[in-house]
Specification:
four-stranded parallel sheet, 12% strand, Rossmann fold, alpha/beta, 170 residues, single chain, 6 helices
Amino acid sequence: MTDPVAAAAAPYRVTLVCLGNICRSPMAHVVLEDRLEAAGLGDRFTVTSSGTGGWHTGDPMDPRAAATLTEAGYDASRHRARKFSIDSYAENDLILVMDHSNEADVLELAPTVEEQQKVRMYRSFDPEAGPDDLEVPDPWFGDEGGFTRVLAMVERTSDALTEHLRPSAP
């Protein structure tokens, strides 16, 4: 099997994308960074996140998302929302989107067809996701329970993604 990390310039750059970059993608960003560090791979990866909409640029993550992460032992304090742009293609090796709407918006910005190959649904790595169940639901309009469900989804997907990205044994 080809090692996707070895094929890229070091460090391998992953970005996670949702709508406003205040709920889903920053939660996934924090958890994926944590998982990569715990696997001893932190120095081989750079993880970022962004949103397809720019109205939250510079803002911290949603307080409910931050509280959910903090209660689970993660550091949610460093996040500041940013907007996905055409430059994000040059800045990343893998672009993981949270839903089909984000996917369409991101693909529309791709400078080339080849660059579109960097885009994948985040939950395509989730061992519990089926082909018709690849979206991370947006918890913004719901209650705190939605953030807890998203965190569970993000944790298991980040575990599987970390294994996928783990360099092949020499």
